[in-house]
Design goal:
alpha+beta; two-stranded antiparallel ribbon; 3 helices; flat
């Protein structure tokens, strides 16, 4: 009886242990689905890391990918770090390469990727009479549409849509030509001078108009001209206006420079003249202050006067004065004046015996 109880107890314990192990296995499942030889669940390498050693006898060994050089995008037990894609030829990089994402390359601007040919092709240019409905992108070509409902396109383009036609003012303008899908309407105000390019279906132009005929016979404006569609304004503004303004600007600049140079020269000349006059005045003042003793005096201008030359001039002046002066009479000298009658001159002292 005791043996039977012991066997029942042992069987119950084994059943409990198996149930507990099964419950733990259900609660903690293995996401990778692979185990090591020891029964351990293998771990995946996350994005940005590559497998260096696969899971087997030991756990998986991962390594970090190098940014801009290698990458790994998914959780994996076998994927290693792969080299980044390089954009070459007609391709350009839209998104750079990181450790967890590869670089994304697209076609260059004005090119799109043709899925049939498997390469980049130039974007389509819409012809005259058609405008751009959808611009060209790297993944699709340009979509063009016909210009209708008072719209036009007078040039080939891969960017410009159909433009609305110009509406002439009924009160002040005359419509010279109607709008077509290939060209805009032409309006004219009789009160204002208008410059326009005539078309082949128009009659002789009025004598007040100035016509510009292009070499190729097209009705587009000459390069450098501006087209306006507002009422009461010229249609084409010639580029000659800018060419005429350039000489005027140059003349004004030259006049300013010449005037500035003349002003500087005048100021210098006037300053030199004043300095020279001041020097002469100082020299005259120093000459008047010279003493007879012959001392050398220095004036404000730094000019010295020689006293010896001044003494010689004074001596010469004294000598000339002595020569011109009459000699004095001597009291001992006698003068006899003979009268007509032979008598002595009155007031003459008698002769001594």
């Amino acid at each position: 009886m005791t043996t039977t109880v012991s066997l029942v107890t042992v069987c119950a314990l084994v059943a409990l242990a198996l149930a507990s192990k099964t419950e733990r296995a259900v609660q903690v499942p293995c996401e990778s689905g692979q185990y090591t030889t020891n029964g351990e669940c293998c771990e995946d390498c996350p994005p940005g890391e590559g497998v260096v050693k696969k899971c087997g006898s030991t756990q998986t060994v991962c390594s970090q990918c190098l940014d801009s050089e290698t990458f790994s995008e998914d959780y994996s037990l076998i994927e290693q770090c792969r080299p980044c894609t390089e954009c070459t030829g007609l391709m350009r990089m839209e998104t750079p390469c990181t450790d967890s994402n590869d670089a994304i390359c697209v076609c260059n601007y004005n090119f799109f990727f043709d899925g049939i040919l498997g390469q980049c092709e130039p974007c389509t240019v819409c012809p005259v009479g058609q405008g751009v409905y959808s611009h060209c992108e790297h993944d699709h070509d340009t979509v063009c549409e016909e210009c209708t409902d008072d719209t036009y396109s007078d040039r080939e383009s891969s960017l410009d849509p159909c433009l609305p036609c110009t509406i002439c003012d009924e009160d002040s303008e005359i419509q010279l030509s109607e709008c077509t899908p290939n060209k805009d309407s032409v309006c004219h105000d009789p009160l204002l001078p208008t410059y326009f390019a005539p078309t082949s279906d128009m009659g002789p132009s009025p004598p007040s108009f100035t016509n510009y005929f292009l070499p190729d016979g097209s009705d587009s404006p000459v390069p450098g001209e501006t087209t306006t569609s507002s009422a009461g304004s010229p249609r084409f503004l010639g580029h000659g206006l800018n060419e005429n303004l350039i000489p005027i600007y140059c003349s004004i600049l030259a006049a300013v420079v010449v005037g500035l140079v003349a002003y500087i020269v005048f100021k210098r000349w006037n300053s030199c003249k004043q300095n020279k006059q001041a020097a002469n005045n100082r020299a005259a003042t120093s000459n008047q202050m010279v003493t007879p003793e012959g001392e050398k005096l220095h004036s404000d201008s730094g000019i010295s006067v020689d006293s010896q030359s001044l003494q010689e001039q004074q001596q010469q002046q004294q000598a000339q004065a002595e020569v011109q002066a009459p000699p004095p009479r001597s009291r001992t000298q006698e003068q006899i004046v003979v009268r007509v009658d032979g008598g002595p001159q009155p007031g003459t002292p008698p002769h001594e015996v």
